[in-house]
Design goal:
Blueprint: E1 4-6, E2 10-17, H1 23-33, H2 52-57, E3 64-70, E4 73-79, H3 87-94, E5 99-105, H4 112-123, E6 127-133, H5 142-155, H6 160-163, E7 167-171, E8 176-178, H7 189-198, E9 203-205, E10 211-220, E11 224-233, E12 236-237, E13 241-245, E14 251-255, E15 258-263, E16 266-269, E17 272-273, E18 278-282, E19 292-295, E20 312-317, H8 333-346, E21 351-354, E22 360-365, H9 368-380, E23 385-387, E24 391-392, E25 395-397, E26 400-413, H10 417-426, E27 430-436, E28 441-449, H11 450-453, H12 456-463, E29 469-479, E30 491-494, E31 498-499, H13 502-508, E32 512-514, E33 521-522, E34 526-531, E35 537-539, H14 569-575, E36 580-584, E37 589-593, H15 598-612
Parallel strand pairs: 2-4, 2-5, 5-6, 6-7, 30-35
Antiparallel strand pairs: 1-9, 3-4, 7-8, 10-11, 10-19, 11-18, 12-17, 13-14, 13-19, 15-16, 15-18, 20-22, 20-23, 20-24, 21-22, 23-36, 25-26, 26-28, 26-29, 27-28, 30-34, 31-33, 32-34, 34-37, 36-37
Helix pairs in contact: 3-4
This protein binds guanosine-5'-triphosphate and magnesium ion.
Length: 613
């Protein structure tokens, strides 16, 4: 066996935390202080959040690599997303790291996603640096949070050694870290030092042949497909002949066209790549995440990256609405399918399944939000298609039906406890614990089927007057608790094609909540509002006031309509029922019945009632 060495010129760390605990902001500060920018250079905030949707929503969606230099050592940093739906990204990021910085908000303490990422990091055997962040918050309670972190580690079965983690306090936003609460830090010096001291350089076997585990894929217009991953052993050079080992052990030969490493947020071309480094390799098209790239003579695969299975699916079908093709560039289903297949190659957490129907497929992911982000991305790229309501993926074991469950942590004012508990019990939730710290706010933990939480967030925010906080977190599969109704109301459905007029909408207002404005085009079968009652109602949104010779006493041309709130994509996909679709185009999000003709829908319902009786 070859001797194990460590590459001391390098450190590979992942930054992990619950959503919004300050990962990306801390990376910014590390950049600034490592001298990556000139003093007077104007740099954006949250530099690593490069995707348009990430900047818009202020969250990280995809894990990303970068590097900083500190005292001659290059630190490769992987910024990860904190939102639970992007857990797959964290798992991939950890496969490249030798250590992790666990950030915990000094006021919020460890939250569900802290537990998830910490569990994964411990399982991967990574060295952890704990950073209690945002100690500047007026409601910061760092001592109590530290106790909670110990509790969490013990709960996760951490070893004695893991319990003796290096600990720092920080104000990431101001670029400050310190060892104790008493001192006042001035910069991130101690964080850099702790990384160098506590995180081991990547290990490799001396003389072992080249092995790189592909953890991420990217694309460049100039050199094509890029494979990103850690070099576990050996070295490689530009123009080397290598081989890629696929999932079934198949071998694809390749010639390295370009080798790059991360320098700051950019890539730097190199002639040779060192063991332990994170490389970006061009020269192969047919490569998948989890593959090993290695030597021709000694092709030995590394353990593949295993990602948790998807829990939610959404049906994607061709846009066959009357307005199809008016707003998008890519309307044919073959184009939509091609784009989805491309996503599969880039994102291991997403899967695709045939439905057996023409022009439709099922996409599966870690949560409705992850799928909504994919749909939103495609819509912005010019695609047009229809999607159905998200559905959870059941499992069957020994004749038992199992469904995905969530741990849900709710933090809200005592006053709203009643309504929250009632709503959650309708959704088959069970209360697990309740903590009332006397401040008027309560923290309640529930176990709720994932199905029951689809579309719940909006309702929760309304019920708690926007002041409640909820953190759902996937908690494995458990006994099916029975169907819960998605929505108790029906839909207001347009009965003809035309343009909505104020007079008609005004008369429809008492029937429910409207989703369209006067002047909006409508078609037969399009959902224009939510009916107050349980059944659907076909309505005419284009009905003008009859003209008469008599002067009307009230001037209804000037009707004043209540303002409407357009549904967002996420709201629309959780609003629609099984027999309904969301029509997604670059310009609009419309909802419709799957079957557009009122008469046909009527016949279908009559037939289904007949078979039931
Ligand atoms: N008070 C305070 N706020 C901070 C600090 N660091 C970050 N924030 C704020 O916290 C919010 C979230 O910061 P991000 O850096 O986007 O958090 P993140 O962990 O990358 O979030 P995700 O990637 O979505 O999981 C932003 O509004 C920051 O301005 C800090 O040290 N103190
Ligand atoms: Mg982030």
């Amino acid at each position: 066996m070859a001797a194990e060495l460590r590459n001391d010129n390098l450190r590979n760390i992942a930054i992990i935390a619950h959503v919004d605990h300050g990962k990306t902001t801390l990376v910014d500060a590390l950049f600034r202080q490592s001298g990556l920018f000139r003093d007077n250079q104007n740099v954006n905030e949250r530099l690593m959040d490069t995707m348009e949707l990430e900047r818009e929503r202020g969250i990280t969606i995809a894990a990303k690599n970068c590097s900083v230099m500190w005292q001659g050592v290059r630190i490769n940093i992987i910024d990860t997303p904190g939102h639970a739906d992007f857990g797959g990204e964290v798992e991939r990021a950890l496969s490249m790291a030798d250590g992790a910085i666990l950030l915990v908000d000094a006021s919020e303490g460890p939250l569900p996603q802290t537990r998830f990422v910490l569990k994964k990091a411990l399982a991967a055997g990574l060295k952890i640096i704990v950073v209690i962040n945002k100690i500047d918050r007026s409601d910061a309670r760092p001592e109590a949070v530290l106790d909670e972190i110990y509790d969490l580690l013990i709960d996760l079965g951490a070893t004695e050694e893991q319990l003796e983690f290096p600990l720092l306090y920080a104000i990431g936003r101001d670029g400050i870290a310190q060892k104790t609460l008493k001192e006042t830090g001035r910069d991130l010096h101690v964080l850099f030092e702790t990384i160098l001291k506590e995180i081991p350089g990547p290990a490799y076997d001396q003389g072992a042949p080249f092995q790189m585990l592909v953890s991420d894929l990217a694309y460049s217009d100039y050199v094509g497909r890029l494979a990103v991953g850690k070099i576990f052993n050996g070295t490689a050079h530009a123009r080397d002949n290598l081989v890629c080992l696929g999932e079934a052990g198949q071998q694809t030969q390749l010639k390295v066209a370009k080798l790059q490493i991360f320098q700051g947020i950019h890539l730097l071309e190199v002639e040779e790549i060192q063991p332990g480094d994170i490389a970006v390799l061009a020269g192969i098209e047919a490569v998948q995440i989890g593959d090993t790239i290695c030597n021709l003579e000694t092709p030995r695969a590394l353990p593949r990256i295993r990602i948790d299975q998807p829990t939610v699916s959404i049906k994607v079908s061709v846009n066959n609405s009357p307005f199809s093709g008016k707003e998008g560039k890519h309307v044919q289903f073959s184009r939509v399918r091609e784009r989805l297949l491309k996503e599969l190659r880039m994102n291991v957490a997403i899967q695709l399944e045939e439905t057996g129907e023409q022009e439709s497929v099922l996409i599966k992911g870690r949560g409705e939000f992850q799928l909504a982000i994919l749909i939103e991305t495609m819509r912005r790229e010019g695609y047009e298609f229809c999607v159905g309501r998200p559905k959870v993926i059941y499992r069957y074991e020994n004749g038992r039906k199992l469904e995905p469950m969530e741990r849900l942590l709710v933090d809200c004012d005592e006053r709203f406890m009643g309504v929250v508990t009632e709503k959650l019990s309708c959704r088959k939730g069970k209360m697990i614990s309740l903590a009332n710290n006397g401040s008027g706010r309560v923290r309640v933990e529930y176990s709720v089927p994932s199905q029951g939480l689809i579309g719940y967030r909006d309702e929760f925010l309304t019920d708690t007057h926007g002041t409640g906080i909820m953190h759902p977190f996937f908690d494995g599969y458990d006994e099916f608790r029975g169907e819960s109704l998605s929505r108790f109301t029906g839909s207001l459905v347009a009965d003809r094609t035309g343009t909505a007029v104020p007079y008609a909408l005004y008369n429809l207002e008492p029937r429910g909540r409207l989703f369209i404005n006067p002047g909006d085009p409508v078609y037969e079968g399009m959902i224009i509002g939510e009916h107050n009652r349980g059944s659907d109602l076909n309505v005419n949104a284009c009905k003008e006031k009859k003209l008469s010779n008599m002067r009307a006493a009230n001037k209804d041309e000037n009707v004043i309509l209540s303002p409407i709130k357009l549904l967002t994509l996420e709201q629309a996909i959780s609003f629609v029922r099984d027999d309904e679709r969301v029509e997604v185009t670059p310009r609009s999000i419309r909802m419709r019945k799957a079957e557009l003709g009122a008469q046909k829908r009527h016949n279908l319902r009559a037939a289904s009632l007949k078979t039931k009786s």
